[in-house]
TrEMBL record:
InterPro entries to which the protein is assigned, alphabetical: DNA_methylase_N4/N6 (IPR002941), DNA_methylase_N6_adenine_CS (IPR002052), N4/N6-MTase_EcoPI_Mod-like (IPR002295), SAM-dependent_MTases_sf (IPR029063)
Pfam families in UniProt: N6_N4_Mtase
Protein name: Site-specific DNA-methyltransferase
PROSITE patterns documented for this protein: N6_MTASE (PS00092)
């Protein structure tokens, strides 16, 4: 029997993924912001706005937030021919795929087991992205390709078709994900009636047929007056015992002289409505609406090409999260995701490298927190302000080359920064003990790390070992040591920078997509293939 071939997307440089440095994050208290008073008991203040390259920022978050993010929404660069001068040569396509792959792999690690990721994209890369996500998240975890009507006005200057939609690819992390229901309105209840004065209230008829063929569901139904009703082609929706229980409860009735079966679906039992895969602009907003929302809260002439309306993000957060959950957007743009998550009582993390982090996102979030932003979804959720966020920037690279070309510890690092950075590199959680100087971080209950720039001597280690409990172990990271390590089996000593030089790529601060700066490739690139 032939083995089933696996579909795999290949492209130039797919296997050349960067070895990312796990940077630490530095808070800038002057740019962090919070309300002057609590508005409710549920105000959230630990939201995070991170300024810096989003790939390095995601890596920086990985240790603390792996498995904790409930919902990720990203609106990455779409890689359209309009944006990139030499798009047709295929090189930019490979770079875009590499950019997405490295980020999606970390985003998957950040997702909780019951989490989901929602990716806005257009047709240019949609189908390539779908195959890539199948590979990263698992094809069985694909939930939907949502069509969002981002424009309602025809573009008569379009060369072929006037584009009116974008897509949103939706994947879950695992089967533990539960999709919430949307609220019902009177419009959604118009099909429910109560012509027979059923005590359970209004109802509508539902399908009695099995969606898939099953022989054990193909039984004849003999009605109370003796009529015989043949089964549907695939069989009934229930086994015979369950069928008659529903007859007894009144959920199933016989109509038209007992020649037909009718199933009742009661309005009182509907906890919400299942979302559809087409989202119209009048329901979730359009790009024009989003542009106006940003303009109302940010006095800046720069406009975004593809902003997302607050109602669109509201629907995603409503379906994918509950109050208090973490929401992440690593292509924050104008800050819509954070603004909506904040108003809806979710914790949020936004990452943005562009200067509009300061010109758009911070002013916008300040107005949200102050309660002066009454646009978007504010009135719908009765937003009154409150809460806050902490502003972080990426620390510089831990190592740099001196004038002789040798790797050294970056002089910008003080003792605390160095200790925290080494915790990340060695897989420890930075948590300095206020009373024990050598307990700067832990990997387990009894395994500790201590980082110092001093010369570590035999006498120093002897003093530490005297304080250690019998089952405790210690990793010491230092620039130099003079110790007989065989004397201390519970202590491991590593030299900086030698111990971490080959672990990752140091000295690189920017992994962003800068297609326009690329030179023209002289020879024809390899053709991309889908196996």
């Amino acid at each position: 029997m032939a083995q089933k071939q696996k579909l795999e997307l290949t492209w130039i440089g797919k296997d050349e993924q960067p070895k990312l440095e796990p940077r630490i994050l530095l808070e800038d208290l002057e740019l962090s912001y919070h309300a002057k008073e609590r508005v409710t008991e549920n105000d959230i203040f630990d939201n995070r706005l991170i300024f810096g390259d989003n790939l390095l920022a995601l890596k920086a978050l990985e240790q603390e937030f792996a498995g904790r993010i409930k919902c990720i929404f990203i609106d990455p660069p779409y890689n359209t021919g309009n944006a990139f001068e030499h798009y047709d040569d295929g090189l930019e396509h490979s770079i875009w795929l590499n950019m997405m792959k490295s980020r999606l792999e970390i985003l998957k690690n950040l997702l909780s087991d019951d989490g989901s990721i929602w990716i806005a994209i257009d047709d240019t890369e949609l189908h390539y992205l779908k195959v890539m996500c199948d590979e990263i998240f698992g094809r069985s975890n694909f939930l939907a390709n949502i069509i969002w009507q981002h424009s309602v006005q025809s573009k008569n200057d379009a060369k072929f078709f006037s584009l009116h939609h974008n897509s949103i690819l939706v994947y879950r992390k695992s089967e533990k994900f539960v999709l919430n229901r949307l609220p019902r309105t009177e419009e959604h209840n118009t099909a429910y009636r109560n012509p027979d004065n059923d005590p359970k209230g209004p109802w509508r008829s539902g399908d009695v047929r099995s969606p898939n063929y099953r022989e054990n569901l193909r039984y004849k139904v003999i009605t109370p007056n003796g009529n015989v009703i043949e089964p549907p082609e695939n069989g009934w929706r229930w086994n015979e015992e369950t069928f008659w229980k529903k007859v007894d409860s009144g959920e199933i009735i016989f109509v038209e002289n007992e020649t037909r079966v009718l199933r009742k679906i009661y309005l009182s039992e509907q906890k919400g409505r299942v979302p559809e895969t087409i989202w119209f602009g009048n329901e979730v907003g359009t790009t024009r609406e989003a542009t106006n929302e940003v303009a109302r809260v940010v006095s800046n002439e720069e406009k975004f090409a593809t902003p997302k309306p607050e109602r669109l993000i509201q629907r995603i957060i409503e379906l994918a999260t509950n109050v208090g959950d973490w929401v992440l957007d690593s292509f924050a743009g104008s800050g819509t995701t954070g603004a909506v998550a904040h108003k809806m009582g979710r914790r949020w993390i936004m990452i943005e490298l562009g200067e509009h982090c300061h010109t758009h996102i911070i002013p916008r979030m300040k107005k949200v927190i102050d309660g002066t932003d009454q646009g978007g979804i504010s009135k719908a959720v009765n937003w009154q302000g409150g809460g806050g966020f902490r502003y972080y920037k990426l620390a510089p690279s831990l190592l740099k080359k001196d004038k002789f070309g040798n790797w050294i510890i970056n002089p910008e690092y003080n003792a605390e920064m160095l200790a925290e950075a080494m915790c990340k590199h060695e897989g420890f959680t930075y948590n300095p003990d206020p009373e024990v100087f050598w307990k700067q971080g832990q990997s387990t209950e009894n395994d500790f790390i201590y980082t110092t720039t001093q010369l570590v001597t035999q006498q120093m280690v002897e003093g530490i070992v005297e304080q250690m409990k019998e089952n405790e172990t210690l990793l010491i990271c230092c620039k130099a040591f003079n110790v007989n390590i065989d004397d201390f089996p519970q202590v491991t000593i590593k030299k900086i920078p030698q111990a971490i030089l080959n672990k990752c790529e140091f000295g690189r601060d920017d992994y962003s997509l800068k297609i326009n700066e690329l030179p023209m490739k002289e020879k024809e690139p390899e053709q991309l293939e889908l196996f």
